[in-house]
Amino acid sequence: MATFAAKIAAGAFATASAGIAFAPALRADSPSPAPILARPADPEVLRSKLSIYDSPAEPAILVPVKSPLQDEVAAARVAATEAYSSIKEHTADVRQTWLGWEKQGESALKSVISDRDQLNPNALYVGIATLAGSIVGRNRFFLVRLALPPLFFIGSAAYFLPHSYAKAAEKAGVPQQWRDLRGRVDHAANEVKKVSQEQSGKP
Fold first, then answer.
1. Which of 11, 49, 107, 145 is most exposed, with the fewest beta carbons within 10 Å of its own?
2. How many CB atoms lie within 10 A of CB 154?
3. How many whole angstroms separate alpha carbon 78 and alpha carbon 201?
4. CA-to-CA distance for 107 and 112, rounded, in angstroms?
């Protein structure tokens, strides 16, 4: 029995020695196998795979498009602006002269109008009388047609606006006896009234 056990042990030792001698991986002079390293996944491969989510929408890119009329409109606007500036510069002197005349006329009118006269409705009466003068002289001779409106204006202003007329006449150098036309007219009207009353026998 002991001999059988020794044979089995000798056979197992011989088998193990033979395996160690002939196995290339276990031999001392055989090169060790290169280690196998896991290669990382390629990003392109990963991107090419379908995803369970929708891909995000790409942002819209605005491309400026130049209109063919844009340059022409800009040139026309510049030309209009330059023309307006030129006209404004050339008319500045005329506007200043006109404003000066307007201020002088306003100051002269204020210096003539008297506070003692009632402009409303007397100024309206003066305007109506002047219009009546133009109507009366419409079919007359040229000089008469030209002279009647100013005469009606002066006469009506002297009667309805006596104080303003007196101030204007004084500034214009009219003689003293012609500055109170209303008084002269009233005096003549009273004389005519007295004569008519005397002729009719009424007191």
1. 49
2. 19
3. 89
4. 9
Q: Is the pLDDT of residue 151 over 70?
A: yes
List strand residue ranges (DSSP E) for 130-201, in order: none
- Using a 10 angstrom Cβ sphere, with 0-12 exposed, 13-18 middle and 19 or more buried, the burial of residue 113 is middle
Tokens of 47: 């991107």
Could you report the per-residue pLDDT of 29-70, keeping only the tens digit for each? 445 555 555 455 555 655 566 667 777 777 888 877 777 788
H/E stretch holding 143 reads helix 142-160
Q: Is the pTM of this model over 0.90?
A: no
Residue 144 contacts by C-beta under 8 Å, 6 or more apart in sequence?
137
Tell the residue number behind the tokens 């044979």, with chain if given.
7
Nearest of 160, 150, 149, 153 to residue 121 by alpha carbon: 160
What is the chain's percent helix, strand, coil content, to nearest 5?
A: 70, 0, 30
* Six token digits for residue 77: 């606007």
Helices (H) and strands (E) in the chain, counts: 8, 0
Distances (CA, A) of 177 to 22, 73, 153, 154: 163, 71, 19, 15
Alpha-carbon separation of residue 142 from 139, 148, 152, 165, 173 (angstroms)? 9, 10, 16, 27, 28
At 96, list the tokens. Answer: 């200043």
> How far apart (Å, rounded) are the C-alpha atoms in residues 133 and 147?
9
CB 119, CB 160: distance < 8 Å: no
Q: From the centroid of its chain, how far is CA 189? A: 64
